[in-house]
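Intended use. Records like the one below are meant for learning the mapping from a protein sequence to its folded structure. Do not use them to infer anything beyond what is encoded.
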Amino acid sequence: MDALVRVTLLARRAARAGFGAALTCGLAAFVIFGGAQYPFGPVLVAACALWSLLLITRLHSKWKLTGDAPFLLDFELGALLSVGLDAILLRFDGTLEGRFSPAIYVLVALVASFGRPLPGLLVVAWVVILDALVRYQMLGAPSYEALATQAGFACAFALLNLLLLRAEVARIRVTARARLEDELQRLRDDARSYRLLGAGEARGDGGEKTEERLARSSVEEIHQSVHYALDLLRRCLDLHTAVLLWRTDSGTHLRISELSTASDEIHDAPFSIGDGVLAAVLAKKEAVLLENLRPTYVIPYYAGGCPVRALAAIPVADDGIVRGVLALDRVDNRAFTPREHELAAQAARYCLRAIQNERVFVQLERAKVEQGKLYRAAQALGAAFSEKDVLEAGVRAAREIASFDLAAVTVWDEKARMHEVCAAKSEAGNVEDLVGQRFKPNTGLVSMVVTNRFPLPYKGEFDKTHQVVLTRRLPWPNIPSLLVLPLLHHGRALGTLILGAKRRHAFGDTVRPTLEVLASHLAVSLSNARMVQRLETMATTDGMTGLLNKRSMLEQATAKVAAASRFRRKLSVLIADIDFFKKVNDTYGHDVGDVVIKGLGDILKRQKRTTDVVARFGGEEFVVLCEQTNEDGAKLLGERIREELEKTTFHSANGQLKVTCSVGIATFPEAGATWDDLFKAADEALYASKRGGRNRVSTWQPASVARIKAG
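Structure written out for the chain above:
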């Protein structure tokens, strides 16, 4: 039945997809058999309406698409246009070789230009085949020479348009991409020169976009502010050029940061700081005022000879370091007055303040972004209650801060003095196999980070030949960037967070502080998850034996009985009680009694199946709940438990001792339809074992208690 449904759905989809192509073929047949030359009437009008409707719907579908059109859609468009064109030629010229026959080449060129290559080539083949059929059916014996000529020209037009247009599109894309990269690089260079970004820093994808956005807005703001000051200064002091020259990131060259000029001969390429008259400003760190300049003087920001006669160059110093030069010049030989010099110095200070203000803005914006990331990380970590959820949330938060290809988490067991890899995820090497590996403290980075409580390695650069991450016997991918962060909670190391990246400088100074704060949040959440797990364990298990406690057993028992009733399955309950346990405590002491209880608990753990539920119900009494187990199966389990306990020897200060147990069994639904009834029946069977001499297994019988017999 399922196969029939799938075939039906497949056929329906195929029919829906090929509906347009089928109608197009029908219209082509209409043209081939002379329909285009029919007298004007209902048939011709219906054919024209159908063709127009198909064309409009296909054009609308293509217009709505944001990516490449489906193969069939491109083909249908080209085929419909060729059918319409042939119909027009036959209607008005009566032949395919009339005055307007070259229009078919225009159609082929358009289809090849705007469609994908394969549909375009199929449309060309369609045009040739349609032309041949029309010539054969309508025009009698076809001219093979004319047909070959038209087919050759159609293929040539298609191939030329396909190759040339796509080559031109590819060239434009490459050029546009190169220009965009150049513009972005110039932006980064400007930002680094203004110290809005750290040089050589690499961040994660999200961080990199944020940095570029901040850099773009800040650099643009600097340019606007400085250009306004320079333009105002040039107009007020009747200057030829006012230009701010700034040191490049390397510090060896000057380049034009912003200018206002009346000259057409500005040389905007970077030039050495030792070139021309501006070298004195950088060397002396003082303003230089010059007049009576000759054409032979070298002013580096002019492409030709010196076109000005007076020059004022003011150093722009930041933190005692000359970062740039404000240069003002005049064409006429008029020296700069002290007042004009002071105005120029104020303009230089204004330009510097504009840059410094943008630095503060970028720092505040960056801090806001990082705080937002940490806030989201804290929310995600706070919502995680298990260790697995905490680790996954921590890795996701770290990926938002920095881009990395590898992440792992180790935990430190202070009592056992052992490290363990508890999680690992990688795109740079197979580290998932390391999960569960344990190793002792050594000279590796993880051990050193736990001991020193400080991130390693220095600057996040990893050298596999000299550094060990976990231990020498556990291999680690050879990646250039690595950062091992301590997970600290109240000064105590819980483990480490390990991040690795294939690219260099992935964990620079801009991301390390944020990652360290994240590691602190991760440590707190990990500690809380462990505490929750311990509380859950304490609430659900018996502290002495590690089995479920009475409350947890009652919760599971109710669910098991309901499931057995719903699915009509067997369910057996076993109650085991140590014989003469009070005598053991009185003779050997309660500490030995505890050892005996643990011993029976260990036997029950070994004997039970995976689906069985075992609990210490109180004192020396244990309960086993066995799903899909009838009375005979439960009796076999009870006998194994009894026999193994009987064979076990316990040691004490007063000598060796052996104990036995009695077991009572009740099975659903014969012994009861509810948990209370089942437990009561099993308890009655247990007392029957006690009365029958102990060290035996008894099953509940449907008669009265007096007729219960020992198993």
